[in-house]
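Could you join me in thinking about how sequence relates to backbone shape in a protein? Label the sequence line and the structure token line clearly, so we can match residues to local backbone shapes. Once you have written the record down, we can walk along the chain together.
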Amino acid sequence: MAEIILKNLTKIYSQDVLAVDNINLKINDGEFIVFLGPSGCGKSTTLRMIAGLETISSGEIIIDNNIVNDIDSADRDLAIVFQNYALYPHMTVMGNLSFGLKLRKLPQSEIEKRVFQTADLLDIKPFLDRKPKELSGGQQQRVALGRALVREPVAFLFDEPLSNLDAKLRTLMRIELIKLHRKLKTTTIHVTHDQVEAMTMGERICIIDQGKIIQVGTPIEIYRNPVNTFVAGFLASPSMNLLDGEIIKKNGTINIKIAGEQLSLPDKDFENLKEFNGREIIFGIRPEDLYVEKLFNDMFALDATVITVELLGPETILVSQLVDGKEIYTRLDRNFHAKFDSNIRLFIDIHKIKIFDKASSKVIH
């Protein structure tokens, strides 16, 4: 296992394309951290620099207290699993698992011991004599993981390893990877653009956009307290509802104007917003913090029109339109029903709202 530290890590491609912009991050020994972000944000490039597969423009990568900038990929003692598995098609599963160990000239007894232990761990022992084309996608992924595991590296690097699997297999493999990490306690970096993977697998999530780290924290910290509108709108599905608004101080009271309504906020909880009087803001509310009935006093209502009701089995997603034309998502229980184009009132828990400055996109409450 190893601690991995990134110091001012930067990658610039030709034509001055800035792919990774001065990243600083400490990945703890034995931690499972997820790099999350949209396609092209720099997360895979960062992983490849850690692996030694991509050159560094500037900065340092420190693994287990050693600067590895100039150390060859093969000598960093890291195992990387890619999206496309990259199994040797002419070799059996046994051959794929043992190939790297043979190159390192390990004794045959040690090779067999590691291969059989790994095959047991991943439940692929019955397939040791098969070739990759004779395996399902999930089985091939297990073999790719096994090839990384037998090396007993100081850290695992996963580059979107589940994206080629169907939804059911992805769920199963997520659980398997979590169980595997809890057994081995090996430092793991997992790259994905899938918010569900990030929320369910990561002990911490590192959100990256346009080559920069935007926010780092536990899944629940980031979910509850996004630092800006990008994080709020990116994490979870449906994501946080983000509505244009304006702060208006009236008779000493803080009001927010959104969707044709002017909502009064309690001074004691929103005192800091007085300094933003007259400022355009983005009003944020999670779908699960909206209701179709008033449950307690600290709630205010918005009028809306039903667009569609998505019945998902255990829950229902109501998509409705506010008077200003903006769509808003509400997460409700499975028994909810409503007719298309019918009028509805949505009640908001004011203690769950987030307010972002429109100009900077940063959270201000």
